[in-house]
């Protein structure tokens, strides 16, 4: 019997979100490794993400034949070859569109999208935002290395302004996208950020995304050691990370840095009463009053969006990671199945010829 999860904001006994069969036997990471040689540049952050995903997949307890990875074009898009599941290396920027059709037609599948900052946010920008607003039951892993790696080092939609690359020898003039801000603005119901080298945190975020009914977008900071090496060093170096990384936990005060023995050290995030913007303060000077408590489940996206704007695009100082937003709203496939059933009840099974020759057609003589 299939495992049933209920989607949307209300119970639907007849239209569960997904009917993905459980695996017959216990699985391990090895079961999700294909027989293909993994071919990325030595030291690429993609290896770490692949290992984390393969290690996490058994936790889902799903039959691997009912898991699908769809990718677009780019270094990260080789991902489906290395997963011992079904998969498709699809069209540049169109992975969310193809995955939407698959998820809508086959609700017995767990559908994952693997994309990069160029693939998702340049040619694929429209496909991404529409998948997010529709709340299709997809898990989208957006590898962000802030560079075009496959085509050998041009600036990407997430490269910082002034970036010197082969395509911007005098510095990029473009303002970069913030993928988390973009996703929240597109009404995404689940948005998170993590880092390729932090296996524990990455797995926790994957777990939360997999449990979410609807579209879950996970931005993964991923190092390209050939064309943009060290882009996220401030977040990976242990000493620097203490002052640079804000770890978001639902229900917990938003604090970071070294707290000190009295608990009054480090920094905290507060809201400026004059402007309404978020700002970082020294807890020793400010105290703990007014320190914001993270609410990932808030119906309003205001605080999640404000948190996404804290990071400095150039230095990545004060960068929040974790789940920014995790709210429940109706899932696209569930709503579609309900509409189709109502249509059949009201109009009968119907015939394609009758539909094509309906009242809104005419004959040209």
From TrEMBL:
One of the Pfam families matching this protein, by short name: TPP_enzyme_C
Keyword Kinase: no
CDD domains attached to this UniProt entry: TPP_OGFOR
Domain Thiamine pyrophosphate enzyme TPP-binding intervals: 73-220
Domain of life: Bacteria
SUPFAM superfamilies assigned to the protein according to its UniProt record, in alphabetical order: Thiamin diphosphate-binding fold (THDP-binding)
Keyword entries, A-Z: Oxidoreductase
InterPro entries: 2-oxoacid:Fd_oxidoreductase, THDP-binding, TPP_enzyme_TPP-bd
The keyword Oxidoreductase appears for this protein: yes
PANTHER family: 2-OXOGLUTARATE OXIDOREDUCTASE SUBUNIT KORB (PTHR48084:SF4), 2-OXOGLUTARATE OXIDOREDUCTASE SUBUNIT KORB-RELATED (PTHR48084)
Name of the protein this chain belongs to: 2-oxoacid:ferredoxin oxidoreductase subunit beta
